[in-house]
TrEMBL record:
CDD domains (UniProt xref): Rieske_RO_Alpha_N
Protein's GO biological process: cholesterol metabolic process; lipid catabolic process
Gene3D superfamilies: Naphthalene 1,2-dioxygenase Alpha Subunit, Chain A, domain 1, Rieske [2Fe-2S] iron-sulphur domain
Membership in a protein family: Belongs to the cholesterol 7-desaturase family.
Catalysed reactions, semicolon-separated: cholesterol + NADPH + O2 + H(+) = 7-dehydrocholesterol + NADP(+) + 2 H2O; cholesterol + NADH + O2 + H(+) = 7-dehydrocholesterol + NAD(+) + 2 H2O
Protein name from the UniProt record: cholesterol 7-desaturase
Cellular component, GO annotation: cytoplasm; membrane
Chain ranges of the Rieske domain: 13-116
Length: 342
């Protein structure tokens, strides 16, 4: 497939694991942003994500490295590294090497997920990763929903921005997901690093109905390019999390999670089975998009229909703030001559 013209090293929060994958004392290997990494959980429960290679002689800490209390010990010579990436012990010498440090990443655990902050300029986080329950402010909690259902696809040739742009692409709902009518967007707020997109949509009925008759929709919160959460209203109560994380200069890992709401007084096996089926349907629809993204060539500048200008221009201009290397493409809107506006 075509290599994305956008930088594969954007700034923001990105999912690198699920929390349950890394228990006390575990060392978890992974590769993201062209870096071999390890995540390890100390005896206290504190999670650390750092680059994988020991600064001594380059052993990979994910292959034989062990958690010793609150530090990670190299399998090669027993050098111990702290949660800040500093050498704190050389077992055959009376003092550590204070001049070398392994790069560590700011990390938060939220939405049953592990997120790291990535920034090629080394800046501290300047926005929060969205929370699937807290950020919608409606009082709903994890206990009000059935267990999280998941999709995980690795090494796909796509970029996180493809997925975010899907959130303003009203026309695809009818042709990819077979909605009876094209949805109407009621909010585009791209003023801050955390943006908001709301739209009215239905998956039921036929194309004879009017959008004014629809009493259901979706609210989306985008935490930069890496993590987006949604809440549905007026339909089966569901919330979703999409998390796209670059692996190298061509590929990304895709994670998608769904929560289906419990109905008070109707929590029997039949209700659970229906919820499971509905969650599987939500995942199936997301997988339809993934199939397209994984074979897509990023069009820049795109040939837009008139009604698409506002949404695509807004989201592409917003996305530029996450590319400190300047490789963030152009604005989406075209002028009457068909050329990208400067």
């Amino acid at each position: 497939m075509a290599k994305p013209p956008l930088s594969m090293k954007p700034t923001g929060w990105f999912q690198v694991a699920w929390s349950e994958e890394i228990g006390i004392g575990d060392v978890h290997t992974m590769k993201y942003f062209d870096q071999e990494m390890v995540a390890w959980r100390a005896d206290s429960g504190q999670l650390t994500v750092m680059n994988a290679y020991c600064e001594h002689l380059g052993a990979h800490l994910g292959y034989g490295g062990t958690v010793v209390g609150e530090v990670l010990q190299c399998p090669f010579h027993g050098w111990q590294w702290s949660q800040q990436g500093r050498n704190v012990c050389i077992p055959y010498q009376d003092r550590p090497n204070r001049g070398r440090r392994i790069r560590t990443y700011p990390v938060v655990e939220r939405n049953e997920s592990v997120y790291i902050w990535h920034d090629i300029e080394g800046r501290a986080p300047f926005f929060e990763a969205p929370d699937i329950f807290e950020d919608f402010g409606d009082g709903r909690r994890k206990a009000d929903y059935y267990p999280q259902q998941r999709l995980f696809r690795q090494g796909l040739e796509l970029h996180p921005q493809y997925v975010l742009e899907n959130g303003v692409d009203f026309a695809h709902f009818k042709y990819v997901h077979n909605t009876p009518i094209v949805p109407i967007f009621t909010r585009h707020d791209f003023d801050e690093p955390v943006s908001y997109v709301d739209f009215t949509i239905t998956f039921e009925g036929d194309d004879q109905q009017s959008i004014e008759d629809v009493r259901s929709g979706v609210e989306a919160i985008n935490g930069g390019l890496g993590v987006a959460v949604t809440r549905s209203w007026g339909m089966v109560d569901n919330r979703t999390i999409s998390a796209i994380t670059p692996v190298d200069e061509r590929t990304s890992d895709v994670r998608f999670m769904v929560y289906i709401g419990r109905v008070p007084g109707r929590d029997d096996e039949r209700a659970q089975a229906k919820a499971r089926m509905f969650g599987e349907e939500v995942i199936r629809q997301f997988a339809q998009d993934v199939h397209i993204w994984a074979h897509q060539r990023y069009s820049d500048p795109p040939a837009l229909a008139n009604a698409e200008y506002e949404g695509f221009t807004a989201i592409r201009n917003w996305a530029k703030k996450f590319y400190p290397d300047g490789k963030g493409g152009t604005a989406a809107e075209l002028n009457s001559s068909g050329k990208a506006q400067q």
